[in-house]
Design a protein that fits this description.
- This protein is mostly helical and 115 residues long.
- The chain has one domain: Immunoglobulin-like (Sandwich), CATH 2.60.40.
- It is 58% helix and 3% strand.
- Strands 1-2 form a two-stranded antiparallel sheet.
- Strand 1 and strand 2 form a beta hairpin.
- The longest helix has 25 residues.
- The chain is globular and about 65 Å long.
- The relative contact order is 0.16.
Length: 115
């Protein structure tokens, strides 16, 4: 009886730690998100888009993280017409891979819940 209780406790602890690791892995890397904000500013994204009311209000990005997956956002940035044929957005296919990843990480944080 004691052995099965010990096994059950060990399993519970192990599962709890796995859930905690998964939750931590789901959290965005703050440094990467910060770099993404810098890329957003350096690429003058606010000329065509807005975040939290700052920038061009015609194309708000405030909930893009809830509407698109990271892969969809990345594909849209690199080749917008492949995702939406009538898109007027410029393709950023020459953006450095780490800058692109950081920008996507930042955009994924933009959800109604984060407001």
């Amino acid at each position: 009886m004691q052995r099965s209780l010990a096994v059950a406790m060990a399993l519970s602890l192990g599962l709890g730690m796995s859930a905690l690791r998964a939750e931590e892995a789901a959290k965005p890397d703050a440094a990467k998100v910060g770099k993404g904000q810098q890329v957003y500013a350096a690429q003058h994204c606010s000329m065509c888009h807005s975040v939290a009311g700052k920038g061009n209000p015609k194309n708000p990005l405030d909930d893009v993280g809830s509407k698109m997956t990271a892969d969809e956002v990345k594909k849209y940035i690199v080749n917008p017409k492949a995702v939406k044929p009538d898109s007027k957005m410029k393709a950023y296919s020459s953006l450095a891979a780490d800058d692109l990843d950081a920008l996507v990480a930042y955009l994924q944080t933009l959800t109604k819940k984060s407001s």
